[in-house]
User: Fold L,D-transpeptidase family protein from Bifidobacterium asteroides.
Amino acid sequence: MEEQEEPRISDVDQAETVTLPPTMGNGPDPVDLFADGEAERAFGAGASHKAPSSGHRGRTILALLLLVVLILVGCWFGARAFFRDRVAPGVTLGGQVMMGRTKDQVSQIVDRQVRDSQVEIKGEGTSARAGLKDLGVSVDSDATVTRIMDAKGSAGISRLNPFHGEAVPLVAERDQQAMDKYLTERFVPSQDRSVPSTIVFDQGAHAFRAQEGRGGKAPELDRVQDAVSSLIDKPGRRLAVGVVYKDVTMPISLDTADKVASQANQRLAKDLVIKGADDDLMTVPAATVATWVKPVTDLQKGTMELGFDRQAIQQYLDQELARQLNRDMVTAVNVKNTKGDVVAETTKGVDGVRVTDVSATTDLVVKALQEGDTSPVQVKAEITPHKEQTRVARYDVPDGDTWIRVNLSDQTATAYHGTTPVKTFPICSGKPRDDRWSDTGTFFIYLRHTVQTMRGDGYVLPNITWVSYYNGDEGFHTANWNSVGIAKGDPSNYGSHGCINMYEQDAKWIFDNAPVGTMVKVEGQVPSGPAR
Assistant:
């Protein structure tokens, strides 16, 4: 049987087309398979896919919002940490963006922009390029750096807002007189210049006097001042100005200078005194105060006022306050007997003193000088209270500590170990008149010399041996020239200037056996004649 060939795709156009008639009558209605549930009823479960509900969409949006918030919070804290020690966004210096710079980087930029800030000045037949310093401007670079680092505050959204900008100017002081001097020297011949009256210190008279000036030709400062103001506000540029000249009278009158000289001399009439702890005083010589005088002048207004150079004052105080007013703490050493009674203080206690805050003292000195206040200026200082140390001396027991009893009545000195007498020496004490007597009381040996030249009112005695001082300039020592007075015990006729004269071997025994801290008791009445 011959096989019939199946029609191919290319033969579709030749196939017979069958048309189905529409369904009539009461058959079922057509089904909308896209309606909810219809596809599932028609074809079984899983045939339909529901669109997300409104609740599900809300949770998704909330999650996304939370994620954005977390990212923003992280960025905020990260940026805050990054800019803690760096310049905030939006801060500029001279038009240069400073954002993110460290303190060292800012310092370098400030120094460079100060150097680059220049004014091209043109005058009659001459020109000059001047920096800020030439024109009397003192830039405080450290303060400028601090202002840049602190710009826009220390915290908050505003500090990190890059759209909130802040242009920081230089921190600077101007000296109008220095500017006028520079411009005058560069652009006005010396014979044509006006000279203000001023004050000078006369070394011979130790006083200030007025020095008269004169009228002449001078540069106008306004244009240069405007250029300087512009560079302070926006440094790092080079500006050009032309000098305008004017004929001027004497800028500062002689009468004005006379008044300021008189005020300065009033400040020199009495020493400047600075007070430390207790009664410690430091006196500043008038010649030093004179070097601090720095008149404040306004050449435009023709005024001069008494002023003082604060920087020079602080430099002086930095060197001298600590040297003259600081002191080390000294521990007090008290001597007690075996009963616990304090019998003497062998070493006087001294509180320690350290001067602090020299800058504050400088401000007080400047204020006192400006106001003519002659009261002592009180410094700020840290006080370290002195400590106390107690030494128990066994003077009231047999064979106790060494001490010496000087008996003026019988002109003897006896060494004891506690209550045990060890050795007695003949002496000749101070003469009982003309303020030459030996003081009575309880003392302690504090200074010794094997040999010394003694000097006093009307005498010089070289090569005095075995000296042991116990009361100011009173002490035991060899007196070879006074052997008769020692032998007789006759201070009325052979007395010293207050010391205890002894034979050399006896003075040496005292020196060898009575160290510093040995108690000395001087008692009795000086006899009117020889005691022996």
Q: What stands out?
A: Confidence is low (pLDDT under 50) at residues 1-25, 31-36.
